[in-house]
Here is the input.
Amino acid sequence: MQTIWSRHLRYTLAGLVVATLVGLYLGYPVYGFAAGLGVYLLWTLNQTRRLAHWLADPYATNEAPQSLGLWGELFEKLHKLNQNHRLSQDRLRARIDRIQESTNAMHDGVVMTNARGAMEWWNGSAEHLLGFRQSTDQGQYIYNLIRTPAFRSYFDAKNYHEPLELPSPAKPHIHLQIQISLFGDDDRLIMAKDVSRLHQLEKMRRDFVGNVSHEMRTPLTVISGYLETLVDNADELPAKWRRAVNTMATQSFRMEALITDLILLSRIEAGEQEINDTTTDVNRLIQQICQDARTLSEEKQHEITFTSTGGHRLKGDEKQLRSAFSNLVFNAVKYTPAQGRVSVSWFSNHEGGYLSVKDTGAGIEEVHIPRLTERFYRADPSRHKDTGGTGLGLAIVKHVLINHDGNLEILSRFGEGSEFICHFPADRLAAGSAEPS
Ligand code: ADP
Here is the structure.
């Protein structure tokens, strides 16, 4: 560029010298110089006009404007820059098209939103599964289109370890699993997977267990009734039958308890009961449960205490909450040796409400803790024979808490005792409850 510029300067000066000499020859050197300058100015102005015209639409022709010297070089360099820019733009567009093509071929819906939830891009499956439309929904907030409150809280919580399941807002027969990933500046990549078939299978399994349990209940009630009569009149039975009848009666009562829990669990899992429109007085409920627990404790003489701070009520179904809380308190009694302590407390802070059941009992080894809420999982299989539990208690607790947007925390040290804490979010709390007496 340096040499072109010096060549340009040389030619321009030479031109001006020639113009001045011609002027000198004609007797007007100053006019000659001025005429030379004028011609140079007009030529430069013309090149500037051509440049402006060309830059207004550089892709209109595939060639640069032709010119001499510095201007010719400038046109050529700009043309090359333009071509390179165009080439990388085409390459980038092809790559984007390919990514869009492949994401469009996916069966899962993919949506990109900014940090506030405004939708920026989504694929064809998202249109099908979630009912979004390119023409109207660009820039809309996603939670205005997926209006389920659970989705809004999931989106805002930024805790995306577990996926969220919900029915499609556009096609209620489609059941979706939503998984969000964060990228960039808190932007969200939202994947929606159609899990209708799995959901259907899960429902069939639940219905099957529910129905079988229901069908078994009547014959079992009859058998238990007769066995109870036999046990009541055991004196009249031959001695060799007494033990058998007693064992049969105990086992049939266990089966009845199991079936009652199975029916309850399948109802809770199906979310049959109404949980959103009622409030539960937790203080009153726990006082009743503690009373029952003292009866259960009997000669084991546990010290069972209840403390409450805040006195909030809980928005939720009392029957379900009673099942969950009583399972925790009765477990504490069952798994705590005589004279042990069981402390129940209900308290709240700005994050939510907490029901804690703490005991000084057997404790649980750390390896078992993550699996305790599975159906029929026992930390110590040999121990349940003494306690007569069904193995479904903590599964019931877990599902009741899911229905109430809560979760269960288990803290335990083997041999020292356990604490089970039910966490409820702040929007599940309602004011007004009597303090425990
Ligand atoms: P179960 O009917 O056997 O009590 P649960 O589902 O209520 O069934 O509890 C599952 C297992 O968790 C129990 O078998 C027991 O091993 C353990 N567990 C529950 N609560 C306690 C507790 N308070 N202390 C020690 N172990 C407990």
